[in-house]
Design brief:
The complex is a heterodimer. Chain A is of the alpha/beta class. Helix content of chain A is 35%, strand content 22%. In chain B, helix 12 crosses helix 13 (257-281). The chains are: A alpha/beta, B mainly alpha.
Amino acid sequence: MTAESIPVAPALAGVPWEPGASKPDVILTASGVRRTFGGLTAVDVDHLEVQRGVITALIGPNGAGKTTFFNLLTNFDKPDTGSRNFEGRDLDGVAAHRVANLGMVRTFQLTKALSKMTVIENMLLGATGQAGEKLSRSLFPPMWRGQERANTERADELLARFKLDHMREEFAGTLSGGQRKLLEMARALMVEPTMVMLDEPMAGVNPALKQSLLDHVKGLRDDGMTVLFVEHDMDMVQEISDWVVVMAEGRIIAEGPPASIGQNQAVVDAYLGSHHDSALDLEADL
Amino acid sequence: MDWGAIIENTTRGLIGEQFIYFGLAALGLNIHFGYTGLLNLGQAVFMAAGAYGLSMSVVTLGLNFWWGLLLGVIVFPLILAAIMGVPTLRLRADYLAIVTIAASEMFRIVARSPSLDRWTGSSDGLTGFATTFYDLSPYDKQERYFFDLFIGNQMWVVTVGWIALVIVILISLLLMKSPWGRVLKAIREDEDAARSLGKNAYWYKMQALMIGGVFGAMGGMLRAIGTQSAQPQNFITDVTFFAWVALILGGAAKVLGPIAGAAVLYAILSFTDVALRQGVDNGHIPEWLMTGTQVGQVRFMLIGLGLILLAAFRPQGIFGNKEEMALDDR
């Protein structure tokens, strides 16, 4: 496949296929972000820009620092140095829960369904700006009942969309792995985010549910949200992402449209080792 | 056997003063542990804050009773919660456990110190701070009330105690049915999930610590009023663990659980106390098995045995939800 025949999302046309490439409409930026654990440098990213309104995949071999980088972007972890900027706002020193209130909401690799709460309670928790979550008003139900009703309606719509409505009153702990992923995604939408960060949304999901999850992720983009996800599953990456960022050993080594990644020498080296074709040389030496 | 005395004492345990003090403390622990997952192993220090808040205000500082009430029930427990919570609530649950148990022992030992005699009355404690309270009593001091179970002043403590209990239960019910309570449960289940949805977990945990502390302080203050003294010895770690036993017996994370637990605990303690003592006195229990002086200890052995049986056959407690409990194993 030549470079000309590789499809590129219209929003990203003209963006160079190189690490740190600048994008036309940026929602999230990371610059000089570095995080070390003792002597190990887990993340060392010079520059990354995430385009608004598209699905960006963050891939890389095991131990590439994807999840650590992800935690740094969502402020669940603090970088040693470097800055992150979300919608023009510096995230340095902003508490993790505030990042969610700014409109960037994340999910977790190991699903965090709140098992001793019902599915609907899980959903209602996601709504932001609830008057009833203030201690002073919680004691006076009339002050929050109307809002609660509106939130419940919205939650029920989302549950129907994610086909979880029949589980409404069940404890979330009784859901299957795939249903928990769905619940986590639906719950994240209750926050009404502008950007959704998904940490391995396909991990532990049975094949039957995979397609429906994929469609839901695409649905987020179609609703105008920006999606950044970490994933191992290359099929998923090829099928739904508009742009792929590849990490290896803590650095970003490649960027480009999904179809271009498989041919990128740096990516092939990172996944298979840089001497993967040396066997041929060996033969020649004999 | 004098069944009249046995029934009378058991009923007193079921609804009387001890039940009220520990019921309030256990309701506080339920907010801490049952709903928020905070491991408070020093509920005694919150109770002491209520007791000493009142007694020191009145006796040492010469303030009137109502100032003492405000300081003991609200101001002291809030300050205490802030002191213990600020350094530990950002950390894992075990750090709060260490700090609370240390704080409760530190308070007791410092209050006992002879060099503070002028302030805390050292090991004798403080007395004579509850006159205003008993002056308000509508009951006759000499009379017995409520099926002759309580004499006048006792009856007044029990009346006020029950009013306090009802208020605390209503507040707990309202809080736990509100979105605020939902956030607490979410934090108990998974703090990171709550944070990822925009909830300030740290601040919610602080609020929970404070509210549970205030409930505990109410229990401690009523105890000081009921016994008309605030003594360091009344706030040893056993006190914390009685409240825990009440919570576990009744079932955590159910508003009425700790109340039922406290009632059952003190009913059993009173029943076994009188029943065993009579059994020994009447020769039903032979001398070689148990003497009258051992009754006190044997009661607690029986409670321990009961707890073991409960853990084996009904781990969720009397009121707890078995289905909920089973989710832990998944």
